[in-house]
């Protein structure tokens, strides 16, 4: 029990997997969660790095799923929380099944902030801990043909800054990691592989995770992964929303990635 404990969500693949790997490589035990059975394969990888690992397969869009994850820590102090779980949904909002749209909202927002509240209360009581929240540069722009996802990330980006300010004197840090398009299962799960952004070149999830890890360890408030994404987010701050929506449409409209 001498090793610090980290909780990482969405850790079966992509950015979450790489974040959990960094935790293991840097001497942390792990409680990891995802809504896929692959989480158990990932756990074996992290055990090979010397970590004690508890893997939880749960739907983190539900309060019960989050409670199951939180209970898996068995009261052990959580030194690091990486709230990374999330997914997208392509196509026009009016063409989406509302159950699917709600699942995006409940995973990206409801489950995320519920877990953060439970863990952060413990951290603040101990006056020690680090929280990394995976937001997105998508939160800076209206997401035509990805409207619900971008809206959830706008919420998460804002929430991260607000929480950081509220607990700034508590000894607990909050860092918002804002990646751009990354080479993960995201676009497949969101049914966006035929879009320009889905079929285009993307960032390496290991690079994105390392940028987030370093920012968290340095106590930074936010970090955008990748210089192109830094430029894009800076431009988004001075571009009219209608123009941003049209630009996003060209990237995310179904069929836009086909020759």
TrEMBL record:
Listed Gene3D superfamilies: NAD(P)-binding Rossmann-like Domain
InterPro entries, per the entry: NAD(P)-bd_dom_sf (IPR036291), Sc_DH/Rdtase_CS (IPR020904), SDR_fam (IPR002347)
Protein name: SDR family NAD(P)-dependent oxidoreductase
Domain of life: Bacteria
Keywords from the named record: Oxidoreductase
One Pfam family this sequence matches: adh_short
The keyword Oxidoreductase appears for this protein: yes
Organism, scientific name: Rubellimicrobium rubrum
PANTHER family for the chain: OXIDOREDUCTASE EPHD-RELATED, RETINOL DEHYDROGENASE-RELATED
MF annotations from Gene Ontology: oxidoreductase activity
Family: Belongs to the short-chain dehydrogenases/reductases (SDR) family.
């Amino acid at each position: 029990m001498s090793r610090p404990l980290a909780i990482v969500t969405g850790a079966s693949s992509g950015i979450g997997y790489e974040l959990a790997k960094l935790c293991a490589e840097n001497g942390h035990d792990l409680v990891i969660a995802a809504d896929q059975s692959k989480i158990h394969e990932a756990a074996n990888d992290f055990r090979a790095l010397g970590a004690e690992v508890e893997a939880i397969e749960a739907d983190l869009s539900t309060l019960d799923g989050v409670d199951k994850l939180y209970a898996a820590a068995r009261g052990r102090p959580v030194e690091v929380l990486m709230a990374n779980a999330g997914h997208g949904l392509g196509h026009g909002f009016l063409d989406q099944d509302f159950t699917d749209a709600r699942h995006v909202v409940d995973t990206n927002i409801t489950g995320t902030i519920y877990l953060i509240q439970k863990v952060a209360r413990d951290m603040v009581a101990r006056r020690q801990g680090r929280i990394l929240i995976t937001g997105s540069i998508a939160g800076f722009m209206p997401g035509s043909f990805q409207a619900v996802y971008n809206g959830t990330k706008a919420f998460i980006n804002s929430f991260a800054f607000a929480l950081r300010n509220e607990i700034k004197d508590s000894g607990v840090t909050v860092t918002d990691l804002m990646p751009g398009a990354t080479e993960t299962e995201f676009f497949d799960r969101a049914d966006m592989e035929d879009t320009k952004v889905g079929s285009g070149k993307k960032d390496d999830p290991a690079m994105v995770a390392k940028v987030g890890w370093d920012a968290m360890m340095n106590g930074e408030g936010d970090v955008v992964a990748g210089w192109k994404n830094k430029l894009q987010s800076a431009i988004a701050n001075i571009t009219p929303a209608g123009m941003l929506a049209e630009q996003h449409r060209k990237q995310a409209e179904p069929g836009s990635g086909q020759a």
